[in-house]
What we know:
alpha+beta, two-stranded antiparallel ribbon, 5 strands, three-stranded antiparallel sheet
Amino acid sequence: MYTFDGKAYxxxxxxxxDIIKGKWRTSILLALADGPVFFAKLQRCxxxxxxxxxxxxxxxxxxxxxxxRNVHATVPPTVEYxxxxxxxxxxxxxxxxxxxxxxxxxx
Length: 107
């Protein structure tokens, strides 16, 4: 049995799909792949995403151990996000899938 965000799955692939499904999830993860990013910069990297949608997805990733949230004691407070080890491993899987798709389409 596998669980993600409170939902149980019998199939690990179904769980994987739920982790990455959504308009912005893969883009958010890939934007964090190069290292820690402050919220405002992350939002600028993803044109068209609202602060609400970005926040919701980051909270899901944080709750499930894919992203680390680091609040800096500044005025106003700034929040920096980075991938955890689990998130880094997911990036490697996503890059592998991208490579497979490139090969499938002969690119």
